[in-house]
Design goal:
By secondary structure, this protein is an alpha/beta fold. The protein folds into three domains: about 1-70, OB fold (Dihydrolipoamide Acetyltransferase, E2P) (Beta Barrel), CATH 2.40.50; about 95-125 and about 310-475, Vaccinia Virus protein VP39 (Rossmann fold); about 135-295, Beta Barrel (OB fold (Dihydrolipoamide Acetyltransferase, E2P)). The protein contains twelve helices and 23 strands. Strands 8-10-9-7-11-12-13-14 form an eight-stranded mixed beta sheet, covered by helices on one side. β3 and β4 (about 30-35) form a beta hairpin. The termini are far apart.
Length: about 475
C-alpha cells in the first residue's frame, strides 16, 4: 500500500523580503529560506509550499494581500508562463540594485578577499528588443495555460494534441512549447516572421514535430537581427519524402516573398531526434550564409553556427571596459582565454604586440580566424582545445609569456589546473570577465595568493532577468 503524500499547509500573510537566484524572490520563515517565483520584495502573500528540504523550501503565492510599492506591471502577455524575463515585475532601477548586490554578496561572502569599492553597475540603455538572436520551437502539442483549459468544453480531452504551437519551451519540460504571439526580446520583425511562418504552416497543414515520437516536419526556427539591419532566418525540418520537401519549400518561398528584408534565408534538413545542427549541412534558400555585425571599425561575420554575444550594444560596452582595464602597451603579449569567436581578442589587438586566443570549440576558432582576416588583423593567433590541456608551461614557452591575461570562462568558471598555470605564468594583470559572480568569486579566492582585486565593474547584459556580468581587474602583488 503506497503512502499518501502529506499536503503542505498554506502559510498566510508572509512578506517577501529579498531576491534570490534563478529570478526568484525569498523570505525567511524561522530557520527556513523559502524561494518563491513571480513575487517581489514587499509583496504580502499566502504561500503554498511545494517542496521542503532541511534548510530551504520552494513555494508559490496563492493569494496576494498587498502588492509591493517596488513593483511594476509586466509588459509581456506571456509573463509568468514562458519562463523568460522573470523580473518584468520589478522596475529596471530595482533590477540593477539587486544585481549590484548580487555581485557584492558573491565577492564578500565567497571570495573573502580584500576588495576596492565596487563600481556601480552599467545598465543597458535598451531594455526591450535588445537580443540579436532567438530560437523558437515548433510542437504539434502546444502548452495550454490554465485559462485556456478552463475555456474548453471538456478540459480532460486531448486538446493539446489538436493545437500546434511555435514558441518557447516551458522551463524543465522538453516536450511542452508555449505558443508565442509576441516577444519583447527582439526587434518586432522577429514576431512578424514567426507568426507568418506559423499561419502559413497551419493553413497548408504542414505538420509540426511531435517532440516525444519525433513524427512531423517543422522543428525549429532561429532569427538573428543585428545592428547593421541584416536579418538571418534558419528553419529546421524533418524531410523524408518528396511531397514533404515540396510542402517545406512552399513555406520557405512564402517567407522569401513576404520578407525581402531577410538577407540570409537558410534551412537545415534534420532527421535526427533533436534540434542540434552543428553536425548538419546548412542550405541557402536565398541570400548569403552569413550576416555582419560591427563594433567600432571592426566587422564580425556571423554564420548560422556562430556564437556571438546576444546583446550587441551592451557587448560593446562590456568589451570597452575589458580594453580599458587591460591597459595594454604596444609590446604586450596578451592571452585571451575562452576566446569564443575571438571578439575580445580582436577588440584589444590594436593595443598589443600579439594576442593568443584559446577556445574549446573548433568551429568558433575557425570563425575567429575568418574575422581576423576580414579585419586585416595580423597579430592574433587562435588555438582550439580544452583549456586545461592546451594552456600549460610548454605552450607558454612556445608562444611567449603573457603580460596580460583576459579570461571569459563559461558559468562553471575556470578549472583549478588553469588557475595554477595562470599563477605560474605570473602576468602583470588579469582581466576576468564572468557571467556568474559566484564562480568568479571562488576563482578570485584561489588567485588571491598572487593577485589583489583592483577594480570590479558589473555590467547588465540581460534586462528583466537575474543574470549579471562582472569584469574584475586583478593586479600582481
Amino acid at each position: 500500500m503506497s503512502r499518501k503524500r502529506r499536503e503542505q499547509p498554506i502559510i498566510e500573510n508572509v512578506t517577501i523580503t529579498g531576491v534570490a537566484a534563478e529570478g526568484k524572490s525569498l523570505v525567511r520563515i524561522n530557520d527556513l529560506v523559502v524561494f518563491v517565483p513571480f513575487v517581489v520584495p514587499g509583496d504580502v502573500v499566502d504561500l503554498k509550499i511545494l517542496k521542503k528540504k532541511h534548510s530551504y523550501a520552494e513555494a508559490v503565492a496563492v493569494k496576494f494581500h498587498k502588492l509591493s510599492d517596488v513593483r511594476s506591471v509586466p509588459f509581456c502577455r506571456h509573463f509568468g508562463i514562458c519562463g523568460g524575463c522573470k523580473w518584468q515585475n520589478l522596475p529596471y532601477q530595482e533590477q540593477l540594485r539587486f544585481k549590484q548586490q548580487q555581485v557584492v554578496d558573491s565577492l564578500t561572502r565567497i571570495a573573502k578577499v580584500e576588495l576596492p569599492e565596487i563600481n556601480l553597475i552599467l545598465g543597458s540603455e535598451q531594455t526591450v528588443r535588445y537580443r540579436n538572436k532567438l530560437e523558437y520551437s515548433f510542437s504539434n502539442m502546444r502548452w495550454l495555460t490554465q485559462d485556456e483549459l478552463a475555456r474548453l468544453d471538456d478540459p480532460d480531452n486531448d486538446a493539446r494534441r489538436k493545437q500546434p504551437g511555435l514558441g518557447f519551451h516551458i522551463p524543465g519540460a522538453f516536450d511542452k512549447v508555449l505558443h508565442i504571439s509576441e516577444c519583447w526580446l527582439q526587434d518586432d520583425i522577429s514576431d512578424r516572421i514567426r507568426n507568418t511562418a506559423y499561419s502559413y504552416a497551419i493553413q497548408h497543414e504542414i505538420p509540426f514535430i511531435n517532440l516525444r515520437s519525433q513524427e512531423g516536419m517543422l522543428r525549429d526556427m532561429m532569427v538573428r537581427v543585428v545592428t547593421t539591419g541584416q536579418i538571418m532566418v534558419l528553419v529546421q525540418a524533418k524531410i523524408e519524402t518528396p511531397s514533404q520537401n515540396e510542402q517545406f519549400m512552399g513555406l520557405m518561398q512564402y517567407l522569401s516573398d513576404e520578407f525581402p528584408q531577410i538577407t540570409s534565408l537558410l534551412y537545415v534538413i534534420n532527421n535526427k531526434c533533436n534540434d542540434t545542427f552543428g553536425d548538419l549541412d546548412v542550405h541557402v534558400f536565398r541570400g548569403q550564409e552569413f550576416i555582419y555585425e560591427t563594433m567600432e571599425n571592426l566587422r564580425f561575420k556571423i554564420g548560422p553556427k556562430s556564437f556571438f554575444q546576444t546583446n550587441s550594444r551592451q557587448a560593446y560596452r562590456l568589451y570597452s571596459v575589458v580594453r580599458q582595464l587591460a591597459a595594454l602597451s604596444p609590446d604586450d603579449v596578451v592571452y585571451d582565454l575562452y576566446t569564443g569567436t575571438g571578439t575580445i581578442a580582436q577588440f584589444v589587438s590594436a593595443g598589443a604586440r600579439k594576442v593568443i586566443g584559446i577556445e574549446y570549440v573548433p568551429e568558433a576558432i575557425l570563425d575567429a580566424k575568418v574575422n581576423a582576416a576580414l579585419n586585416n588583423i595580423h597579430n592574433t593567433e587562435f588555438f582550439a582545445g580544452d583549456m586545461k590541456d592546451v594552456l600549460n608551461a610548454d605552450f607558454i614557452a612556445s608562444h611567449g609569456t603573457p603580460r596580460v591575461i583576459i579570461t571569459d570562462p563559461p558559468r562553471a568558471g575556470m578549472h583549478k589546473d588553469v588557475i595554477d598555470v595562470i599563477l605560474a605564468a605570473s602576468p602583470e594583470r588579469i582581466v576576468y570577465v564572468s557571467c556568474n559572480p559566484a564562480t568568479q568569486a571562488r576563482d578570485i579566492a584561489l588567485l588571491d595568493q598572487g593577485y589583489r582585486v583592483v577594480t570590479v565593474q558589473p555590467v547588465d547584459m540581460f534586462p528583466h532577468t537575474q543574470h549579471v556580468e562582472v569584469v574584475t581587474l586583478l593586479q600582481k602583488r
